[in-house]
Amino acid sequence: METIKTFFINFEWDSFWMNVLVSFIFLIIGTIISVKLIPYFTLKLIHKKRRKFIFNKVSFLIQEFCDFLEGNPFVKPELKNESLVIYTSKKDLKNHQFIGLIRYNVLEEITLLEINLEIFQSFNILSPEDKLKKIEIENNKLILLRNKLETLLDLYALDISESILLEISDLCIKIRVFERKLKYNHTVDNLIEKGIMNRTAVFGVKELSEIYKLILTITKKLLELDFIDVEIENK
Hints:
- With 235 residues, the chain is mainly alpha-helical.
- It has eight helices and three strands.
- A three-stranded antiparallel beta sheet has the order 2-1-3.
- The model has no long low-confidence stretch (mean pLDDT 82).
C-alpha cells in the first residue's frame, strides 16, 4: 500500500493530463478525417476516374434528344436561322468530341414558346381525322423515345444528376399517360365506321405540347452542363 501511495504522490500528473489532452485532440482530428475528408477525396477520385464514362453516357443521352428534335414537325422556318453544334468541353482535350447537331436554338426561351404555339396552330387547321393521324404519328415517335430513355435510365442512372434524372423519369411517365389517353380517341371507331356519327374531337393535343415543352427543357439543361460546349452557327 505504501508503495502505491508513494507512486501516486510522485506521479507526474501534469504530463499525464497533457498526454490525455493531446490524444483526445488527435482522436477528434482523426475522426473528422475518417468521416469527412477520406470519403470526400475517395468520391472525388472515383468521379475523376469515371469522368470519361460520364461524358460518354451524357453524350449518348443528348444524341437521343438531338435525333428526336431533328424530326420535330412544329418548327417554323424562321426558327432555323441558328443551329447548335454540340461538343464535350474543349477544356478537357483528352475527352473532347463532337456530340450532335440541333438545327434550331433550343437555348432561347422564345424557341420553346414558338414551338408550343405551332403545335396548337397546326392541329387547329386540320380535320378531326387528320388530327388523329398526326397525333398518332407523334405518339409512335414518343414511344420510341420513351423506350430508349427508360433503357438509358436503367443503365446510366448513377452518372446523371438527380434533377435531370427526375425530369427524364417524369417525361417517360407523361409519355405513358399520353399513350393511354389516346385510346379514348378510338372508343367511337365502330360508330364512325358504320356511318352513325362523325369524329368531332381528338384527345391529346394539350398533352403533346406539354411533352414537347419538357423535352426542350431537359435538352436545354443537358446542354448547359459544365462539361458540354455549344457553338451557335448562323445560317
